[in-house]
Amino acid sequence: MQNFTKSHELLNRELQVSPLAAQTYSKSYRYFCQGLAPSYMDHGEGCYIYDVDGNKFIDYMCALGPITVGYNEPSVNEAVIKQVNKFASGSLQSELEVELAEKLCEIVPCAEMVRFVKNGGDATTAAIRLARAFTGREMVLMSGYHGMHDWSIGASENHKGVPEAVRKLTVNFTYNDLNDLESKLKKHDVAAVILEPVQSNGPQEGYLHGVKELAHKYGALLIFDEVVSGFRYALGGGSEMFGVVPDLAAFGKGMANGYPISAVAGRKDILQQIEQGVFVSTTFGGDSISMAAALATIKILEQPGFYEHITQIGTIQRDGIEKLIHKYGLEEVLSVSGLPAHAGVSFEGHGSLSYLDIQSVYSQIMVENGILVFAIYNLNKSHTEKEAEAYLNATDKAFALIKEAVERDSVDHILKGGKVDPVFKRNIK
Ligand SMILES: Cc1ncc(COP(=O)(O)O)c(C=O)c1O
Fold this sequence. Notes:
Structural class: alpha/beta
Bound molecules: pyridoxal-5'-phosphate
Helix content: 25-40%
Strand order of the largest sheet: 4-10-9-8-7-5-6
Strand content: 5-15%
Shape: globular
Radius of gyration: 22 Å
CATH architecture of the largest domain: 3-Layer(aba) Sandwich
CATH class of the largest domain: Alpha Beta
Number of strands: 13
Order of helices and strands: HEEEHHEHEHHEHEHEHEEHHHEEHEH
């Protein structure tokens, strides 16, 4: 029997002193059925996490992407502890910085040089600034989510607090639609086309090549936001998978198995502008602990079979979800999207039920069955067929109840607590 007493106590305390009581929107209590899910983690081991009340879960969130090799990974711990005993951030940089920059230049297709920062949004923002300086233009075309900075969040539905003058400089374009991109490139003097190269079920044949050709035809630079796709689908992300080399790319999340580090990578002539006054500089950019973690993590990611393993487990899960949708005839309310290594369930409303009603049933049942997942799952090295089976068993139970909810046009008889209630509905990760 699950018990969340300590989680709830901590949550109530934190809500008094920290808005939302989680520093990332999608890790907050509002992204689960309120009252029926853990909020605080005690420790992790491989693909399992243990909350502060002692409940154990198979973790399919993987910290929203960063955990690629698994919690408490001995070789990452060892590398980190070795460096902890020397220094974290120092007055001079660490030798590890040279090694990591060289490693990224070896494994990232576009990387002739790299610059380290901390969050994914720092890296995308650095890339945009470099592109604007290089082209002498201001407009940005974007597709996907690129972090909290004004230039990108200002162009989303969640733009409160971003000046109108900044918002006008970024325009969204539609993924997998070259005509839409070209019409916007014609209309604006564009500095950069930035996109997540792998979205939903991936790029259509030739799409990324087309984006590159169009961006260059109209004098813009191409930036891949590989913050999610990098180190997760392949070491070099979507660029490596689909054989298209952008001018710049941003990496973060999965690089260091949970330690905070990100990087902007790309052409030397563009990165070298940093030596000529294009400002990309942070106090903790050279933090050596994260660099030690990144080097140890990449060593594991580079081992033969790593990505084949993740893809195999992901394929079992993805195919399994699809079969269960058909088993229950839920095609109108559920769909599966994503490539195997990073996929999951999407929810639609039905009758008087909203998509969040349906998602709440899913979330409650997954948690009840020991699975911590939002909607899209992330995998790490230690997920195996055993965990995939548990994931699909829980999914089966959740879908059976979603079927019942749809038939009765009600979730009231199923939900035992609050509903999933994200601060931002849709469109934010
Ligand atoms: C594709 C993509 N780019 C950028 C970011 C921003 O990264 P961070 O939250 O580390 O700033 C995210 C975060 O979810 C992301 O998914």
